[in-house]
Amino acid sequence: MSVELKEQSDSAKYAQAKDYPTYSLWEIRLQLTKPLTWVGPVWAVAVGTVGAAQADLSISTMLWSFALMFLIGPLVLGMGQSINDYYDADVDAINEPHRPCAREPRFKELALVNVFVLGTASLILSFLFFPKEIFYLVAIGLFVAYIYSAPPLRLKKNGWWGNSACALTYVSLPWVAALYLFDSFSTNQLILALIYAIGSHGMMTLNDFKSVEGDIKSGLKSIVVMYGVEGGLKVLLAMMALSQLLAAAFVAYHGQYIGATILVLLWLAQIPFQPKLKKDPKAMAPWYNATANSFFIIAMMVAAYNLKHF
């Protein structure tokens, strides 16, 4: 009987393993950088470019903007994602058993190589080809990525600290870097970048619903772990609403009433999507990100453009 049960167990494991794809080492290296997550910072660079007073529609502007997107997305953020995967390999194996971290014995070694190569490339390229302010911002971004994931600080242990670190490096840092790229830093654009980081903090909570089991086992106190599913939803929706209404008020304060009205309408457009998210946050979080949050990221661009010359 025991032999028969063991054979059944082995067969089940083999069948399960067959359901998961296999990856080459280079595919794993790319996966470690999580290319889909580049979209946020890359978009923030575009927003900062639109908000930069000295930026125009020339080929030069677009090429330099693309260069900064490459620096911030694949390199800086890729390093941050890789170091996060290094320290979270065991947790991710629970939350996402289909990923290589659950099966590839060299996963941590590959992650460390990514961290070194991408981090070094980020510093060298920003030092050689970009204004010194961008080099400083890149150094800050890499440092925040390290303390976000690595002990003893490991900011991600607490959802408030961890999400704040992500929001600032995903939204505010790339936005401000684009301003410096075109010698157009302004206090008003900085304030907008910080206001939208509040909403981005809320967006980060959407990622917590899928990882509650692993977070609890590993002692991570995400927003959803601390306040439950319903409480987590209230926090994220409140923070996203607050940031967008603050942005609308700030734009209106500068006399841009049409722009402020558009920002309010873009926030209102998100509300009809919320009931579906509330029914099953874990399953519907990706859908909400792709639908309702599209209005949020468009609002960032609208706000930056309206204060371009203020």
Q: Can you walk through the features of this model?
A:
It holds the Pfam family UbiA. This is Chlorophyll synthase ChlG. Keywords: Chlorophyll biosynthesis, Membrane, Transmembrane, Transmembrane helix. Its main location: membrane. It is found in: Membrane. By secondary structure, this protein is an all-alpha fold. The protein folds into two domains: 36-185, Tetracycline Repressor, domain 2 (Orthogonal Bundle), CATH 1.10.357; 186-309, Four Helix Bundle (Hemerythrin (Met), subunit A) (Up-down Bundle), CATH 1.20.120.1780. The chain contains 14 helices and no strands. The chain has helices at 2-19, 25-32, 39-51, 59-95, 107-129, 132-149, 159-181, 187-205, 212-218, 223-253, 257-268, 274-279, 281-290, 292-306. α4 (59-95) runs antiparallel to α5 (107-129) and α4 runs antiparallel to α7 (159-181). The radius of gyration is 21 Å and the shape is globular. 43% of the residues are buried. Residues 1-18 have low confidence and may be disordered.
